[in-house]
Design brief:
The structure is a homodimer of 100-residue chains.
Chain A lengths: L1 E8 L5 H16 L4 E9 L5 E8 L2 H8 L4 H9 L8 E7 L6
Antiparallel strand pairs in A: 1-3, 1-4, 2-3
């Protein structure tokens, strides 16, 4: 399992529009094979920034399975009008705690 | 519920030491009232960076309950020798999806 983090900075005054758009767009991700779930959070220190966290079975499920699907252009079409800058996306692997 | 994100950049070659240190230090957080859980992940694009995510009942559980406890200096003592720069910490609130 890997985690995708996407930081989305939103234009001032468009926060409600962005929240409505991602409430629709999230299904485009969630139906993708290998997607385990998506959460949307808003910054306390930076309320203009949203942190979208998506769990995937593999990196390829995101980079190939979603980004090369016809759902990706639709995702961008729904969300990009609200961005103040391009999203910042990274991926993370779990670090297991040693057994005690 | 709120989420704390802490990005920890580690000195080259000290990754295993950091992972061993946080495997011990995490209990200092986990025993704090209001802590719902802590996860440690490592960057795929930036393997020198770890993302530590901690869920708290409230912001005060972190900023007062943990940071003003005697456990916080011990946490820093265990982890800070491995940092290449000070950690970057932010907090996030969930954005609910509208009911369909």
């Amino acid at each position: 399992m890997i985690t995708e983090t996407a930081y989305m900075s939103i234009q001032p005054g468009r926060e409600a529009d962005f929240e409505a758009a991602i409430a629709v767009a999230r299904e485009l991700v969630e139906v993708t094979p290998g997607c385990r779930g998506l959460t949307v959070q808003r910054g306390i220190e930076r309320p203009e920034v949203y942190l979208v966290t998506i769990e995937w079975d593999t990196l390829e499920d995101h980079l190939v399975g979603f980004r090369e699907s016809p759902r990706f252009p639709r995702w961008r079409e729904l969300l990009s009008p609200h961005y103040s800058e391009p999203p910042s996306v990274e991926h993370w692997t779990p670090v297991d705690s040693p057994a005690e």
